[in-house]
Specification:
The chain starts with a helix and ends with a helix. By secondary structure, the protein is mainly beta. It is built from two helices and ten strands, in the order H-E-E-E-E-E-E-E-E-E-E-H. The strands form two sheets. A five-stranded antiparallel sheet has the order 4-3-2-1-10. A five-stranded antiparallel sheet has the order 5-6-7-8-9, with no helix packed on it. The protein folds into two domains: 35 residues, no CATH class; 125 residues, no CATH class. Helix content is 13%, strand content 38%.
Length: 163
């Protein structure tokens, strides 16, 4: 398990522009570990995420649940819940999605409507990142704050988002 997490951490650090990554060390008890990279440059498998292909937004929230926006072969999908137990998914296969990407000062928010509720998936460094759910009357039903900095790829999200 640790062998799988270390390369992922290194790739994420490089993608975020932070830290330097040294070459893997070798020796009698250490074998070199390199991540599986797909042609697009993303880690091919995403352990610890609801995404099967490419992570556009991901973070762990309270109670061990995860919020994710994924690129599944050109189809953007939101998933929420514990790993292996998705409680909410948007859009349904037969649904026309209503994604709206908003750039706000010092952050980004993805907005969509699910079951008449307004959903906001946000990375807002000054306020906090996560998922906010509001009712049609704009009352807040839930706020799931990220436990740490989310993994994001807003440029790819904007590219994959239906026009």
């Amino acid at each position: 398990m640790l062998k799988r997490l270390l390369p992922l951490a290194a790739v994420l650090m490089l993608a975020c522009g932070g830290g330097e990554v040294s070459e893997p060390t070798t020796g009698p008890d250490v074998e070199p570990v390199t991540p599986d990279i797909d042609p697009a440059g993303m880690v091919a498998d995403n352990p610890g995420s609801h995404c099967e292909k490419e992570i556009l937004f991901h973070c762990e929230v309270e109670d061990g649940k995860h919020a994710a926006v994924c690129n599944e072969d050109g189809w953007m999908v939101y998933r929420f819940g514990a790993l292996g137990d998705v409680e909410a998914e948007y859009p349904a296969p037969d649904m026309t999605p209503n994604w709206v990407l908003m750039e706000v000062p010092d952050g980004k928010t993805l907005k969509f409507t699910m079951h008449d509720n307004q959903m906001l998936v946000s990375e807002l460094p000054e306020i906090g990142s996560g998922v906010m759910v509001s009712a049609p009357d704009e009352s807040i039903l839930a706020h799931h704050e990220c436990q740490g900095k989310p993994t994001t790829n807003w440029a790819k999200l904007a590219e994959v988002m239906p026009k």
